[in-house]
Design goal:
- By secondary structure, this protein is α/β, with parallel strands linked by helices.
- The chain has a single domain, classed as Rossmann fold (3-Layer(aba) Sandwich), CATH 3.40.50.300.
- 58% of the residues lie in helices and 14% in strands.
- The chain has nine helices and five strands; from the N terminus they run βαβαααβαβαααβα.
- Strands 2-3-1-4-5 form a five-stranded parallel β-sheet, sandwiched between helices.
- 34% of the residues are buried.
- The structure holds adenosine monophosphate (AMP).
- The site of adenosine monophosphate (AMP) has 17 residues, from helix 2 and helix 3.
């Protein structure tokens, strides 16, 4: 059977991490979040983590080669997976192209790009709320949050077009109850 490789797309605070948790359970997928992987490196105080922290704390993207390398290692470490949910990756055109190369080489392409759509003011509200408990520097203040959203608009949002051209883009209303949003995602996966 072909693998269910999905890109869960959307701005910071759209609910990608939360919804991934439901989808990995339902479909038996492996969750690959570059944000989580980077925070793991920071916690372990690796060289990579130390270099990434400064950029992440400002809300800037870390360089493509770093996240592409991390994703490559994880894909190779889970060759028996039923599929992957890519959460927070790809975030640039170069990352999207690298991901396609890796997956196409295995004849296991991305089957869908599910884009959670949430208005900016709701994103800011959610992230400030999360910041009260997440301990994440990048959730702690509004100007960093707005910088993350700007980075998304500038570098990441154009990937809609990249996946649209492949016929894989599906927009999902990301406002509502958690269960309703999960239902919309499940319907889109089909
Ligand atoms: P996230 O947990 O997805 O919100 O990511 C938190 C931060 O990690 C981002 O603001 C970036 O600084 C960095 N990051 C995560 N994923 C990527 C990626 N694919 N490309 C570049 N930077 C990333």
């Amino acid at each position: 059977m072909s693998k269910l490789n999905i890109v869960l797309f959307g701005p910071p605070g759209a609910g990608k991490g939360t919804q991934s948790a439901f989808l990995i359970q339902r479909y038996g997928l492996v969750h690959l979040s570059t944000g989580d992987l980077l925070r793991g490196e920071i916690k372990e105080e690796t060289e990579l983590g130390i270099a990434a922290k400064e950029l992440m704390d400002r809300g800037d993207l870390v360089p493509d080669h770093i996240v592409i390398g991390m994703i490559r290692n994880k894909i190779e470490a889970h060759l028996d997976a039923q599929g992957f949910i890519f959460d927070g990756f790809p975030r640039t055109q170069a990352q999207a192209e690298a991901l396609d190369e890796m997956l196409n080489a295995k004849s296991e392409p991305i089957v869908a790009m599910l884009a959670l759509e949430v208005p900016e003011e709701e994103l800011v509200k959610r992230l400030l709320g999360r910041g009260e408990t997440s301990g994440r520097t990048d959730d702690s203040n509004e100007s960093i949050i707005r910088n993350r959203i700007r980075e998304y608009e500038k570098k990441t949002a154009p990937l809609r077009g990249y996946y649209q051209a492949q016929g894989k883009f599906k927009g999902i209303d990301g406002v509502g109850s958690l269960a309703d949003i999960t239902d919309r995602l499940v319907k889109a996966i089909g």
